[in-house]
Amino acid sequence: MIICHIKKDLRPILDDLRSKNKSLGFVPTMGALHKGHLSLIKQGLHENSKVVVSVFVNPTQFDNASDLEKYPRNLDSDLQLLETLSDDIIVYAPSAEDIYDGAIISENFDFDGLENQMEGKFRKGHFDGVGTVVKRLFEIVKPDVAYFGEKDFQQLRIIQKLVEKYDIPVKIKGCEIFRADDGLAMSSRNERLTQSGRDAAPFIYQTLKAAKKRFGMESAQKVTAWVEKEFKNHDALVLEYFTIADEATLETVTKKSSLKSYRAFIAVFVGDIRLIDNIALN
Ligand code: PAF
Fold first, then answer.
1. So what's the pLDDT on residue 102?
2. Looking at the whole model, is its pTM more than 0.90?
3. Cβ–ligand 1 contact at 117 (below 6 Å)
4. Domain boundary residue, one of 141, 175, 209
5. Domain residue limits at 26
6. Residue with CA closest to ligand 1 atom 7
């Protein structure tokens, strides 16, 4: 496994691979790697000669200083984990300076409104930060294929839009949500849950599954009201939003159409830890 901390070291390695026509997969991460990341990396290794894994906690996508400060950082254990996976991994674990070349600020993007829904309403500037860092990482790594988990479905749609708008020559693959046996979606934030929080958290996916069943028979508004009531009755979990949206536009559904694909999206606080999840409905 190769580990680079600066793009100057990474570039010649990637140029050499490209000159040999080796296909390059890319999995951008913020570290604190878990089984969800590993499944993306394994898929990348299966489909490409080499996979670059970036490990970088991107400051511009946090709207809250304490969330940024508390975000788990375990580079040594991340590297150990990757080492056991394959020799064909190239890790890029840069400083903010190396990524941003000085000014650590976001570009302002227009993602055709995708950025204004759900997470965009509650985390101001989040998707400008994500767009900025992912665009920058694509410029540095120049991958053939990049892998993103569907847990951050809105992020996935925004990256697809970024690539389309800026004509970036990379194929984006969305990968299914990786869940613990009890259904909790894998997230680096799960590490910070207390035992009682961890015990309560599977309720999120249980409710999404029940909402999916109801959506077969009821309107989006009725299902939403039901979910809101379920969370009001829950002691340990505080619902931030639940919305049923069109997968293409991410706009909240007002009237169902059999021609469209819908997904339910949820954000929940477990103490001060914010978890998100989603489920395809049809
Ligand atoms: O999904 C994440 O971990 C981050 O948003 C990403 C894509 C690595 C950008 O910092």
1. 83
2. yes
3. no
4. 175
5. 2-175
6. 28
